[in-house]
Specification:
This protein is α+β, with helices and mostly antiparallel strands. The protein has helices at about 60-80, 105-110, 120, 125-140, 175-180, 190-195, 200-215, 220-230; strands at about 10, 10-15, 25, 30-35, 40-45, 90, 95-100, 140-145, 150-155, 155-160, 165-170, 175, 195, 200. Helix 7 packs across helix 8 (about 220-230).
């Protein structure tokens, strides 16, 4: 299996206003490691990784990561062959590592850099984003990980990762306590809002994400929500 001991952790630009120059962790689950050529990313689901500050997170454990590792593997495999799904190079089930194609950065690096523009670097990004989200939904999956840091551009194609944030349309209820270890201070209220009697409804969560919570340049997702669910 591929040795990642010399690979570098990847950090995103902070989306917080006034702090875009600061780099921070991309997620609250796995450690993203990038090879020296910056063309492969390893998602390492390791509960001991300092990237995730495990000592400060009492609900963060390997059982939680194993649950979401399995979701990552299932959904990224399900969508292999679609233009918006990155190619999977290797899955190490023992070490809990998923290796995917990589471009060196995410759309977050473009969106939150005042000197750059998605419209200039990928003129069709808006239509590709809409097409990807709609295609995933039409395949009966709610993918709630739709932020700019969950996408990258490779050879003009918009590709999305973080497939662990997927839930089947027909089976989208999850116990709140299962998810507590992956909630951040800025997102826990969204899980609470979508919860009733200790159960999180990811249909509600997903729709609110499109309507309100996930922001891209020119805010295109509310219009997509209206297209998909306008009659509800």
């Amino acid at each position: 299996m591929t040795n990642t001991s010399s690979w570098d952790p990847f950090f995103k630009r902070s989306p917080d206003p006034g702090f875009h120059h600061i780099r921070c962790e991309t997620n609250l689950m796995y450690t993203p490691l990038v090879n020296k050529e910056k063309n492969v990313m390893c998602m390492h689901w390791d509960s001991t990784s300092e990237y995730q500050h495990p000592d400060a997170r009492p609900l963060f454990n390997q059982g939680l990561l194993d649950y979401f590792f399995n979701k990552e593997v299932f959904y990224i495999s399900k969508f292999q062959g679609h233009s918006y799904a990155p190619e999977v190079y290797e899955i190490d089930y023992k070490e809990k590592k998923v290796f995917i194609e990589w471009s060196g950065e995410t759309c977050n690096d473009i969106v939150y850099d005042s000197s750059r523009s998605l419209d200039k670097e990928c003129t069709s990004w808006h239509s590709q984003l809409n097409d990807a989200i709609e295609s995933i939904y039409r395949n009966n999956v709610y993918k709630v990980s739709l932020y700019p840091h969950c996408f990258f551009i490779k050879d003009g194609n918009l590709k999305t990762f973080d497939w662990y944030g997927c839930f089947d349309v027909n089976n989208c209820f999850v116990d709140y306590e299962v998810l507590e270890g992956m909630m951040g201070k800025h997102s826990s209220h969204r899980f609470s809002e979508a919860s009733k009697d200790g159960i999180v409804d990811f249909s509600y969560f997903y729709k609110k994400s499109l309507q309100q919570h996930i922001k891209w340049p020119n805010d295109p997702l509310p219009a997509l929500y209206n297209k998909l669910f306008g009659n509800e």
